[in-house]
Amino acid sequence: MADKIAFLGLGSMGAAMAANLLKAGFPLTVYNRTAEKAEPLRQQGATVAATPAEAVREADIVFTMLTDDKALEEITTGPDGFLNALKPGAIHASCSTVAPDTTRRLAEAHAAHGSFLVASPVFGKPDVAAAGKLWVGSSGPAEARERLKPAQEAIGQGTHDFGDDPGAASVAKLCGNFLLGTVIEGMAEALTLAEKCGLDRVGFYEMLTSTIFNTPVYKGYGKLIAEQHYQPVGAPPAIIRKDMNLVVQEAYKNEVPMPFANIIRDRLTATVALGEPDVDWASFAKRVSEDAGL
Amino acid sequence: MADKIAFLGLGSMGAAMAANLLKAGFPLTVYNRTAEKAEPLRQQGATVAATPAEAVREADIVFTMLTDDKALEEITTGPDGFLNALKPGAIHASCSTVAPDTTRRLAEAHAAHGSFLVASPVFGKPDVAAAGKLWVGSSGPAEARERLKPAQEAIGQGTHDFGDDPGAASVAKLCGNFLLGTVIEGMAEALTLAEKCGLDRVGFYEMLTSTIFNTPVYKGYGKLIAEQHYQPVGAPPAIIRKDMNLVVQEAYKNEVPMPFANIIRDRLTATVALGEPDVDWASFAKRVSEDAGL
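Output (structure tokens, whole complex):
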């Protein structure tokens, strides 16, 4: 018998991941605050629940994919959270990008309840999620990590184990998003200098990404930056600004000076302040051009 | 009849490139200030010249691969430079990483002499040069670029055309080295934060470079940074510090704020000041660990 799964949070990432769990044959109950987002999954065979507690009542595994720490804590341990309705022994696979300490705090709440938390953050945009090709990080109690593997396999092309500290995979996810930010700022600075020196911006991008930077991350973000066209929206600036703030806070707490991280966070803050919500977060690259008078 | 080639500057990059020109069947004369570095090439069939002028007298193409702008200008237009001995119509393939304006100034000197300058900078470490797998940039007069292609094919796996402005390929090379610097600083900050949060530095490097950063640049530099072992030396800190200073100066001249470039230049300045010459330039990643008390 496949584990019964509840999936809470059906944004562009969560909906794609839930659909792949359904395709893989897991009995699925879904919940989203805005109920209409659950409709396509209902048509594919999912049960739609009216509350988080109702969604998890029968579940062996609860996936959450939410915007931020606050939303995750509310839906788990808040007044209308699901934890009290969860079966002892069940696993919470927490996929949101949150502070490692949030993950650890929730892990303690689960331990007190007799359930398990496994941090299960994912790398990849919505199109990658839809293709079931995410990269998954996994950390938490060993037995729970093991039991979660078939479900993780249904959403991703590979799972990397970060050990027993539930916060570890959250750290890894933050570091990964930070590195994507360095790709964007780096490409933006390089293409802007090249352009102001008379080189063709797109031609130089094509040269770089067919030689030493011939890899999807540089090709994908680089194309948006080279063409200055930040569509489609993989993730909006406000969401990743939150992630970069978590990086900077984690660096502060752990006493790690990270000059690149500070720059990226401020670029995203400027982008949010300028009020362009319907663009991919790579649009902070425009700040580099603007600073250079382009 | 293959073009006769002179190669001036037999450091670890130049010697490997010269050997590949010889293997490809080009008659080759070489010159190096320290004559013993020419010995292995003599044994492979090259003629060794005592001066730059003697080296280029019969040449259709002159390659130069020198440390910096000053060395390149001295060997070309200095009192003992080769330009006056060069045949009219010959091509100078300038492979050094130098300021775009240095390249343009030399191009004018060649035009006055009746010869041609083609900027021909290369991407790749000495082992890549030895394998004939460099990526080559090319800019300068169209006819000369065309004539140079067979020789560029002998040293590289591909040549990218940057058009008529001889400085353009120098710009591209500086931007490329800058991007490599962003990879190093980015990986150093990410791995340092991960380490201080309790993750295994090497394990996290392996996860990153087998998933979203699965590409030679991240694998190669990342390994040095993950293991904190900066051997073998692809290029020493002082040489790339010079390159990053050229990036920052070019950015200043062209009015492009480049916060990442400033940080990388200062990391290399600290590394040179600390006096560790026999390490790869990626060793500036140690500054990130040291700043975090590791």
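Residues 5-164 of chain B form a domain with the Rossmann fold fold (CATH 3.40.50.720).
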